[in-house]
Specification:
Elements lengths: L3 H9 L4 H8 L3 H13 L12 H8 L14 H8 L6 H14 L7 H15 L12 E14 L6 E11 L4 E7 L4 H15 L5 E4 L3
Parallel strand pairs: 1-4
Antiparallel strand pairs: 1-2, 2-3
Amino acid sequence: MVRYREILRLHNNGVSIRNIAYSCGCARSTVQSVLDRAKMRNLQWPLPEEFDDKEIYRILFPREEPKLRKAVPDFEHVNGELLKKGVTLSLCWSEYCQRAIAAGEEPYQYSAFCYHYRRWAISNQVVMHIERRPAEQMMVDWCGAVMQTVDRDTGETHKVYVFVACLPYSSYSYAEGFYSMDQQSWLNAHVNAFEYFGGTTPILIPDNL
C-alpha cells in the first residue's frame, strides 16, 4: 500500500518528489498524484495521529456516489392524461418528477421528457386519415375553457365563452369571445366567422352542443 502519510510528511519537510518516491518505494507519478489530490482536498501536514494511510486514502480517493437510475416515464399514461381537460405536458412532467423522486430515481429534465414523449407518440400513435375538401366544411363549437374579463373600475368579473370555428382542410381557425352562449350569440358568432373567412361553407358541423 502507498505510504500516504509519509509522502505528505516528507513533502512538508521540503524533500523532492524524486527522493520521496525513492524513500517510499513508489513511482514519482504516484507521489505527484497524492500531492495533487491532497492539495485538492485541502489536506495539509501536520495531520492528526489517527489519520493513518487508510484514512488518508479515504479522503484522497472518496467513493463516488452511485448515480441514480433514470426514471422511465409511462408515456401511455401521459397520453391518456393529455386527453383530459386542462392537462398539459408540463403538468404531466411535474407529476412524473414527483413520482420519480419518491421512488429514489432521477427524473428527466423537461426538454428531454418532451423529446422522448414525441418519439413515443410518433411510434405508437395510430392516426386515421380523413379525406377533406377545401371550403366544404366548417366545424363550430364553444370551446371547453371559460375565460373572464375584469372591470377595471369595479373589479367585477364576467365569464367569457369562446366560440371557435375551423376549416378542417387547412386548419384555418376563427375564435371570438361572448358573454353568453345564447342563440343570438351563436348566430352572431357564425356571421362573424363567415365574414372573417370571406365566405361560407355548404356544410356546418357542430359538436355536442
